[in-house]
Automatic annotation (TrEMBL):
Protein name according to UniProt: NADH-quinone oxidoreductase subunit H
Cited function: NDH-1 shuttles electrons from NADH, via FMN and iron-sulfur (Fe-S) centers, to quinones in the respiratory chain. The immediate electron acceptor for the enzyme in this species is believed to be ubiquinone. Couples the redox reaction to proton translocation (for every two electrons transferred, four hydrogen ions are translocated across the cytoplasmic membrane), and thus conserves the redox energy in a proton gradient. This subunit may bind ubiquinone.
PANTHER family: NADH DEHYDROGENASE SUBUNIT 1, NADH-UBIQUINONE OXIDOREDUCTASE CHAIN 1
Class of the enzyme per the UniProt entry, highest EC level: translocase
A Pfam family recorded for this sequence: NADHdh
EC numbers on record: 7.1.1.-
Protein encoded by which gene: nuoH
GO molecular function: NADH dehydrogenase activity; oxidoreductase activity, acting on NAD(P)H, quinone or similar compound as acceptor; quinone binding
Protein backbone atom coordinates (compact mmCIF):
# COMPACT_ATOMS: atom_id res chain seq x y z
CA UNK A 1 0.00 0.00 0.00
CA UNK A 2 2.85 2.36 0.88
CA UNK A 3 4.61 1.61 -2.40
CA UNK A 4 1.43 2.29 -4.37
CA UNK A 5 0.86 5.58 -2.52
CA UNK A 6 4.43 6.67 -3.23
CA UNK A 7 3.96 5.81 -6.92
CA UNK A 8 0.75 7.86 -7.10
CA UNK A 9 2.41 10.83 -5.37
CA UNK A 10 5.33 10.73 -7.81
CA UNK A 11 3.04 10.53 -10.85
CA UNK A 12 0.85 13.39 -9.63
CA UNK A 13 3.93 15.46 -8.78
CA UNK A 14 5.40 15.01 -12.25
CA UNK A 15 2.08 15.87 -13.91
CA UNK A 16 1.67 19.02 -11.81
CA UNK A 17 5.24 20.09 -12.57
CA UNK A 18 4.72 19.38 -16.28
CA UNK A 19 1.53 21.46 -16.36
CA UNK A 20 2.84 24.37 -14.28
CA UNK A 21 6.53 24.79 -15.17
CA UNK A 22 6.08 25.36 -18.96
CA UNK A 23 3.34 27.90 -18.25
CA UNK A 24 5.64 29.77 -15.88
CA UNK A 25 8.36 29.79 -18.54
CA UNK A 26 5.83 31.09 -21.07
CA UNK A 27 4.79 33.87 -18.70
CA UNK A 28 8.42 34.71 -18.02
CA UNK A 29 9.11 34.91 -21.76
CA UNK A 30 6.31 37.46 -22.17
CA UNK A 31 7.70 39.60 -19.35
CA UNK A 32 11.40 39.34 -20.21
CA UNK A 33 10.77 40.13 -23.88
CA UNK A 34 8.46 42.97 -22.90
CA UNK A 35 11.21 44.55 -20.79
CA UNK A 36 14.00 43.98 -23.31
CA UNK A 37 12.01 45.15 -26.36
CA UNK A 38 9.82 47.79 -24.64
CA UNK A 39 6.59 45.96 -25.48
CA UNK A 40 3.62 47.57 -23.75
CA UNK A 41 0.87 44.99 -24.27
CA UNK A 42 2.23 42.12 -22.11
CA UNK A 43 2.78 44.56 -19.23
CA UNK A 44 -0.86 45.77 -19.03
CA UNK A 45 -3.08 42.71 -19.60
CA UNK A 46 -5.17 42.30 -16.45
CA UNK A 47 -3.68 45.24 -14.61
CA UNK A 48 -0.74 44.76 -12.25
CA UNK A 49 2.37 43.94 -14.30
CA UNK A 50 0.26 42.22 -16.96
CA UNK A 51 -0.50 39.20 -14.76
CA UNK A 52 -3.33 38.03 -17.05
CA UNK A 53 -1.31 37.84 -20.30
CA UNK A 54 -1.05 34.06 -20.14
CA UNK A 55 -4.77 33.79 -19.38
CA UNK A 56 -5.54 36.00 -22.37
CA UNK A 57 -3.41 33.76 -24.61
CA UNK A 58 -5.21 30.68 -23.33
CA UNK A 59 -8.63 32.18 -24.00
CA UNK A 60 -7.47 33.20 -27.48
CA UNK A 61 -6.38 29.66 -28.37
CA UNK A 62 -9.56 28.09 -26.96
CA UNK A 63 -11.76 30.42 -29.02
CA UNK A 64 -10.01 29.68 -32.31
CA UNK A 65 -11.53 27.05 -34.56
CA UNK A 66 -9.53 23.83 -34.86
CA UNK A 67 -9.25 23.31 -38.62
CA UNK A 68 -8.08 20.17 -40.41
CA UNK A 69 -7.05 20.88 -44.03
CA UNK A 70 -8.94 18.95 -46.69
CA UNK A 71 -5.70 17.49 -48.12
CA UNK A 72 -4.32 16.50 -44.72
CA UNK A 73 -3.82 12.99 -43.39
CA UNK A 74 -6.29 13.49 -40.56
CA UNK A 75 -4.98 10.88 -38.13
CA UNK A 76 -1.33 11.91 -38.50
CA UNK A 77 -2.28 15.59 -38.37
CA UNK A 78 -4.23 15.18 -35.11
CA UNK A 79 -1.65 13.00 -33.34
CA UNK A 80 1.37 15.18 -34.17
CA UNK A 81 0.93 17.68 -31.27
CA UNK A 82 0.60 14.82 -28.77
CA UNK A 83 3.71 13.08 -30.10
CA UNK A 84 5.60 16.38 -29.87
CA UNK A 85 4.75 17.03 -26.22
CA UNK A 86 4.75 13.59 -24.55
CA UNK A 87 8.53 12.96 -24.75
CA UNK A 88 9.16 16.00 -22.55
CA UNK A 89 6.74 14.65 -19.95
CA UNK A 90 8.72 11.40 -19.88
CA UNK A 91 12.03 13.29 -19.70
CA UNK A 92 10.85 15.51 -16.86
CA UNK A 93 10.00 12.43 -14.81
CA UNK A 94 13.66 11.37 -14.72
CA UNK A 95 15.25 14.73 -13.78
CA UNK A 96 15.81 14.98 -10.00
CA UNK A 97 15.11 18.12 -7.99
CA UNK A 98 17.08 16.67 -5.07
CA UNK A 99 18.03 13.20 -3.77
CA UNK A 100 14.76 11.32 -3.42
CA UNK A 101 12.70 14.05 -5.11
CA UNK A 102 12.39 12.60 -8.62
CA UNK A 103 9.61 10.96 -10.57
CA UNK A 104 11.70 7.95 -11.60
CA UNK A 105 15.27 7.50 -10.34
CA UNK A 106 16.72 5.47 -13.21
CA UNK A 107 20.20 3.93 -13.27
CA UNK A 108 20.53 5.10 -16.88
CA UNK A 109 18.57 8.32 -16.39
CA UNK A 110 20.83 10.42 -18.62
CA UNK A 111 20.56 7.93 -21.48
CA UNK A 112 16.79 7.78 -21.04
CA UNK A 113 16.31 11.56 -21.10
CA UNK A 114 18.52 12.07 -24.15
CA UNK A 115 16.72 9.24 -25.96
CA UNK A 116 13.17 10.46 -25.33
CA UNK A 117 14.08 14.07 -26.14
CA UNK A 118 15.12 13.00 -29.63
CA UNK A 119 11.68 11.44 -30.18
CA UNK A 120 10.03 14.89 -30.13
CA UNK A 121 11.22 15.52 -33.68
CA UNK A 122 8.69 12.92 -34.86
CA UNK A 123 5.91 15.31 -33.88
CA UNK A 124 7.30 17.98 -36.19
CA UNK A 125 7.81 15.49 -39.01
CA UNK A 126 4.26 14.21 -38.57
CA UNK A 127 2.96 17.78 -38.58
CA UNK A 128 4.81 18.60 -41.80
CA UNK A 129 3.82 15.40 -43.59
CA UNK A 130 0.25 15.19 -42.30
CA UNK A 131 -0.64 18.80 -43.20
CA UNK A 132 -0.65 18.13 -46.94
CA UNK A 133 1.22 21.40 -47.45
CA UNK A 134 4.55 21.63 -49.29
CA UNK A 135 5.78 24.46 -47.04
CA UNK A 136 4.90 22.47 -43.92
CA UNK A 137 6.73 19.45 -45.33
CA UNK A 138 9.78 21.63 -46.04
CA UNK A 139 9.71 22.83 -42.42
CA UNK A 140 9.47 19.26 -41.15
CA UNK A 141 12.48 18.20 -43.22
CA UNK A 142 14.41 21.18 -41.90
CA UNK A 143 13.65 20.00 -38.38
CA UNK A 144 15.05 16.54 -39.17
CA UNK A 145 18.21 17.95 -40.77
CA UNK A 146 18.81 20.27 -37.82
CA UNK A 147 18.29 17.50 -35.26
CA UNK A 148 20.74 15.21 -37.07
CA UNK A 149 23.37 17.96 -36.99
CA UNK A 150 23.04 18.97 -33.34
CA UNK A 151 22.23 15.60 -31.74
CA UNK A 152 25.90 14.55 -31.92
CA UNK A 153 27.45 17.48 -29.99
CA UNK A 154 24.49 17.38 -27.58
CA UNK A 155 25.12 13.74 -26.69
CA UNK A 156 28.93 14.03 -26.69
CA UNK A 157 28.91 16.92 -24.20
CA UNK A 158 26.51 15.03 -21.92
CA UNK A 159 28.68 11.90 -22.21
CA UNK A 160 31.64 13.93 -20.96
CA UNK A 161 29.82 14.57 -17.68
CA UNK A 162 28.83 10.91 -17.40
CA UNK A 163 32.49 9.91 -17.82
CA UNK A 164 33.55 12.42 -15.17
CA UNK A 165 30.92 11.16 -12.70
CA UNK A 166 31.37 7.49 -13.60
CA UNK A 167 27.61 7.00 -13.85
CA UNK A 168 24.61 7.45 -16.14
CA UNK A 169 22.31 8.11 -13.19
CA UNK A 170 21.35 11.78 -12.96
CA UNK A 171 21.16 11.51 -9.17
CA UNK A 172 24.67 10.05 -8.98
CA UNK A 173 25.95 12.73 -11.35
CA UNK A 174 24.47 15.35 -9.02
CA UNK A 175 26.24 13.74 -6.05
CA UNK A 176 29.57 13.53 -7.93
CA UNK A 177 29.52 17.20 -9.01
CA UNK A 178 31.93 19.65 -7.42
CA UNK A 179 32.68 23.34 -8.09
CA UNK A 180 35.81 22.42 -10.07
CA UNK A 181 33.48 21.18 -12.82
CA UNK A 182 32.43 24.77 -13.56
CA UNK A 183 35.87 25.22 -15.14
CA UNK A 184 36.64 21.62 -16.15
CA UNK A 185 33.34 21.05 -17.97
CA UNK A 186 32.76 24.63 -19.15
CA UNK A 187 33.34 23.96 -22.90
CA UNK A 188 30.95 21.01 -22.68
CA UNK A 189 28.33 23.12 -20.95
CA UNK A 190 28.48 25.77 -23.69
CA UNK A 191 28.18 23.10 -26.40
CA UNK A 192 25.35 21.34 -24.55
CA UNK A 193 23.38 24.56 -24.12
CA UNK A 194 23.79 25.72 -27.72
CA UNK A 195 22.96 22.28 -29.14
CA UNK A 196 19.95 22.08 -26.83
CA UNK A 197 18.63 25.38 -28.19
CA UNK A 198 19.07 24.07 -31.71
CA UNK A 199 17.23 20.84 -30.90
CA UNK A 200 14.31 22.86 -29.52
CA UNK A 201 14.38 25.07 -32.65
CA UNK A 202 14.68 28.13 -30.44
CA UNK A 203 16.01 31.39 -31.90
CA UNK A 204 18.58 31.92 -33.30
CA UNK A 205 18.21 28.30 -34.46
CA UNK A 206 14.58 28.58 -35.60
CA UNK A 207 15.23 27.97 -39.31
CA UNK A 208 12.63 25.15 -39.44
CA UNK A 209 9.96 27.60 -38.26
CA UNK A 210 11.20 30.90 -39.72
CA UNK A 211 7.76 32.52 -39.52
CA UNK A 212 8.81 35.43 -41.74
CA UNK A 213 10.04 33.07 -44.48
CA UNK A 214 8.17 29.74 -44.54
CA UNK A 215 5.00 30.69 -42.64
CA UNK A 216 5.77 28.89 -39.36
CA UNK A 217 7.23 25.78 -40.90
CA UNK A 218 5.62 22.41 -40.07
CA UNK A 219 3.00 24.11 -37.89
CA UNK A 220 1.56 26.35 -40.64
CA UNK A 221 -1.81 24.57 -40.84
CA UNK A 222 -2.37 24.29 -37.09
CA UNK A 223 -4.84 26.46 -35.17
CA UNK A 224 -6.48 26.57 -31.77
CA UNK A 225 -5.51 24.12 -29.06
CA UNK A 226 -3.43 21.93 -31.38
CA UNK A 227 -1.19 24.88 -32.15
CA UNK A 228 -1.08 25.73 -28.42
CA UNK A 229 0.18 22.20 -27.71
CA UNK A 230 3.19 22.78 -29.98
CA UNK A 231 3.96 25.99 -28.08
CA UNK A 232 3.56 24.14 -24.78
CA UNK A 233 5.96 21.46 -26.06
CA UNK A 234 8.52 24.18 -26.79
CA UNK A 235 8.24 25.61 -23.27
CA UNK A 236 8.35 22.10 -21.77
CA UNK A 237 11.53 21.53 -23.78
CA UNK A 238 13.03 24.66 -22.24
CA UNK A 239 12.26 23.30 -18.75
CA UNK A 240 13.87 19.95 -19.59
CA UNK A 241 16.94 21.60 -21.14
CA UNK A 242 17.32 23.92 -18.13
CA UNK A 243 16.87 20.99 -15.74
CA UNK A 244 19.49 18.88 -17.51
CA UNK A 245 21.94 21.79 -17.67
CA UNK A 246 21.43 22.38 -13.96
CA UNK A 247 21.99 18.76 -12.91
CA UNK A 248 24.87 18.02 -15.30
CA UNK A 249 26.89 21.23 -15.14
CA UNK A 250 25.64 23.51 -12.34
CA UNK A 251 25.50 21.09 -9.43
CA UNK A 252 21.75 20.58 -9.27
CA UNK A 253 20.77 20.84 -5.61
CA UNK A 254 24.27 21.87 -4.45
CA UNK A 255 24.26 25.22 -2.68
CA UNK A 256 24.62 26.98 0.66
CA UNK A 257 22.51 25.65 3.51
CA UNK A 258 21.31 22.16 4.45
CA UNK A 259 20.61 19.51 1.82
CA UNK A 260 16.93 19.60 2.78
CA UNK A 261 16.53 22.86 0.84
CA UNK A 262 18.48 21.58 -2.17
CA UNK A 263 15.34 21.43 -4.30
CA UNK A 264 15.04 25.20 -3.93
CA UNK A 265 18.51 25.64 -5.41
CA UNK A 266 17.59 23.37 -8.31
CA UNK A 267 14.47 25.40 -9.07
CA UNK A 268 16.40 28.69 -8.85
CA UNK A 269 19.09 27.43 -11.24
CA UNK A 270 16.46 26.10 -13.66
CA UNK A 271 14.79 29.52 -13.57
CA UNK A 272 18.06 31.33 -14.31
CA UNK A 273 18.90 29.03 -17.23
CA UNK A 274 15.37 29.48 -18.62
CA UNK A 275 15.80 33.27 -18.53
CA UNK A 276 19.09 32.90 -20.41
CA UNK A 277 17.23 30.89 -23.08
CA UNK A 278 14.75 33.76 -23.41
CA UNK A 279 17.54 36.35 -23.45
CA UNK A 280 19.27 34.51 -26.33
CA UNK A 281 16.01 34.61 -28.32
CA UNK A 282 15.78 38.39 -27.99
CA UNK A 283 19.46 39.15 -28.50
CA UNK A 284 20.58 37.22 -31.59
CA UNK A 285 19.28 37.20 -35.19
CA UNK A 286 18.27 34.00 -36.93
CA UNK A 287 21.08 32.05 -38.56
CA UNK A 288 21.10 31.03 -42.22
CA UNK A 289 20.84 27.33 -43.00
CA UNK A 290 24.50 27.10 -44.06
CA UNK A 291 25.65 28.95 -40.93
CA UNK A 292 23.58 26.61 -38.78
CA UNK A 293 25.18 23.48 -40.27
CA UNK A 294 28.67 24.99 -40.21
CA UNK A 295 28.38 25.84 -36.52
CA UNK A 296 27.36 22.26 -35.71
CA UNK A 297 29.95 20.31 -37.70
CA UNK A 298 32.92 22.71 -37.71
CA UNK A 299 32.34 24.32 -34.32
CA UNK A 300 30.43 22.31 -31.75
CA UNK A 301 31.45 18.75 -32.71
CA UNK A 302 35.23 19.41 -32.46
CA UNK A 303 34.79 21.22 -29.13
CA UNK A 304 32.62 18.38 -27.78
CA UNK A 305 35.21 15.80 -28.84
CA UNK A 306 37.96 17.87 -27.23
CA UNK A 307 35.93 18.09 -24.02
CA UNK A 308 35.36 14.32 -24.01
CA UNK A 309 39.09 13.66 -24.51
CA UNK A 310 39.98 16.18 -21.78
CA UNK A 311 37.56 14.53 -19.38
CA UNK A 312 39.00 11.08 -20.12
CA UNK A 313 42.54 12.32 -19.44
CA UNK A 314 41.39 14.01 -16.24
CA UNK A 315 39.64 10.86 -14.98
CA UNK A 316 42.69 8.71 -15.66
CA UNK A 317 45.20 11.11 -14.09
CA UNK A 318 43.23 12.42 -11.11
Amino acid sequence: MTVMLEFVVRVVGVLVAFLVAPLLVGQAEHKVMAHMQSRLGPMYAGGFHGWAQLVADGVKFVQKESVVPAAADKRVFEWAPIVAILPYLAALAAIPLAPGIVGADLDAGLFFVLAVMSIGVLGSLMAGWGSGNKYSLLGGLRVAAQLMSYELPFVLSAASVAVAAGSLSLTEIGHAWNPWWLLWQLPGMVVFFIAGLAELQRPPFDMPVADSEVIFGPYTEYTGLRFAMFLLAEYAGIVVLAGLTTVLFLGGWSGPGPESIGWIWTLLKVGVVSVVVIWVRVSFPRMRADQLQKLAWQGLVPVALFQLALTGIGVILF
